[in-house]
């Protein structure tokens, strides 16, 4: 009888402690935080991250509670607002019913900051002006993202807001939206970071080159070759063959010119001779080397091409082909280029 009584006492105490832990929040005060449940996560994974975020104290008890309520494997993916003052039961209820309503925005490759801001503003979450104000202040995000460390002081986040489809909470701030895009950039760039073949270049230089390749190339399989052409043009041994190290990339001129009210677009379809003479460090027809920074948001293919150009090609020139499928013909000498150019003009 004494043994039975002791067992009953232990069970009773354990039950009391269990119920007490379920009813007690992780903290008596604290700010609400955003918590994301990813698709395919197990209850144990979610519990571990809830504990790491200091939203619960005992992940094992949270997992047990979820199973006792028949909800194991049924917690919905999404973004939630949770507080450390919530009990385990309240958190479990929130993870079933309190998902933030989200709006979707798709950012295509090759857009400049103003175009990205306009797309984000279409969700109605933030205005284009609010988004641009934050995105143009790259320094405020520098300490949070190691890959931004090579940006010049005062630089914007042009080129670093990775093009993708994003789900945006209705109450998201400009900083929160930008941080998600920078998170995505960091994730994607990390896949190529250790395989950069161009010696002595920084992340900022790779992103800058990638943005030019993104705007120049219509076909993904030509990106490594176009990247090689631009890197070749800056090599000292080719300085006498192509304008002393100038890239000669029209998209950089388009970027420098900015918005065309006459055409109603940021990227001008036609460039005049006077356009090509604009005095801007982004005009790579006047100034040698890379421009001060990216001109648009490159995708992963363009980043990979900029980091790993086709080292086997000696080309310095390219011109659109008569196939009119976005492909180009590549040339090593100015004579070849002029021949291909004449062919293209004749087939128009």
Automatic annotation (TrEMBL):
Its EC number is 4.2.2.29. Belongs to the transglycosylase MltG family. It comes from the Bacteria. It comes from Oscillochloris trichoides DG-6. The keyword tRNA processing does not apply. NCBIfam families: endolytic transglycosylase MltG. One of its GO terms (molecular function) is lytic endotransglycosylase activity. One of its GO terms (cellular component) is plasma membrane. Functions as a peptidoglycan terminase that cleaves nascent peptidoglycan strands endolytically to terminate their elongation. This is Endolytic murein transglycosylase. One of its GO terms (biological process) is peptidoglycan biosynthetic process. The gene is mltG. The keyword Cell wall biogenesis/degradation applies. The record marks 216 as: Important for catalytic activity. It catalyses: a peptidoglycan chain = a peptidoglycan chain with N-acetyl-1,6-anhydromuramyl-[peptide] at the reducing end + a peptidoglycan chain with N-acetylglucosamine at the non-reducing end. CDD domains: MltG_like. Keywords: Cell membrane, Cell wall biogenesis/degradation, Lyase, Membrane, Transmembrane, Transmembrane helix. InterPro entries: MLTG-like (IPR003770). Gene3D superfamilies: Classic Zinc Finger, Endolytic murein transglycosylase.
């Amino acid at each position: 009888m004494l043994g039975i009584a002791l067992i009953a006492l232990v069970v009773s105490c354990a039950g009391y402690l269990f119920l007490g832990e379920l009813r007690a929040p992780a903290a008596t005060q604290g700010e609400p935080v955003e918590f994301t449940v990813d698709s395919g996560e197990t209850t144990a994974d979610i519990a571990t991250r809830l504990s790491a975020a200091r939203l619960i104290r005992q992940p094992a008890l949270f997992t047990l509670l979820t199973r006792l309520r028949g909800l194991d494997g049924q917690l919905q993916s999404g973004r939630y607002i949770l507080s450390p003052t919530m009990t385990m039961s309240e958190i479990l209820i929130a993870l079933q019913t309190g998902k933030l309503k989200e709006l979707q925005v798709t950012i295509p490759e090759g857009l400049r900051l103003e175009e990205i801001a306009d797309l984000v503003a279409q969700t109605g979450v933030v205005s284009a002006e609010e988004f641009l104000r934050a995105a143009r202040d790259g320094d405020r995000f520098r300490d949070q993202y190691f890959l931004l460390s090579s940006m010049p002081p005062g630089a914007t986040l042009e080129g670093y807001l990775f093009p993708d489809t994003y789900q945006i909470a209705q109450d998201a701030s400009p900083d929160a939206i930008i941080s998600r895009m920078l998170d995505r950039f960091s994730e994607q760039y990390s896949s190529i970071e250790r395989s950069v073949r161009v010696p002595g270049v920084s992340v900022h230089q790779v992103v800058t080159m990638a943005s030019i390749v993104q705007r120049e190339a219509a076909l993904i399989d030509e990106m490594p070759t176009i990247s090689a052409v631009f890197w070749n043009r800056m090599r000292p041994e080719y300085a006498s063959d192509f304008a002393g190290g100038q890239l000669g990339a029209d998209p950089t001129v388009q970027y420098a010119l900015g918005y065309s009210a006459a055409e109603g677009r940021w990227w001008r379809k036609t460039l005049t001779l006077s356009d090509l003479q604009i005095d801007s460090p982004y005009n790579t027809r006047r100034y040698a080397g890379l421009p001060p920074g990216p001109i648009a948001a490159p995708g992963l293919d363009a980043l990979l091409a900029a980091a790993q150009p086709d080292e086997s090609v000696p080309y310095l020139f390219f011109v659109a082909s008569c196939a009119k499928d976005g492909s180009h013909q590549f040339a090593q000498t100015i004579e070849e280029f002029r021949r291909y150019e004449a062919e293209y003009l004749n087939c128009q």
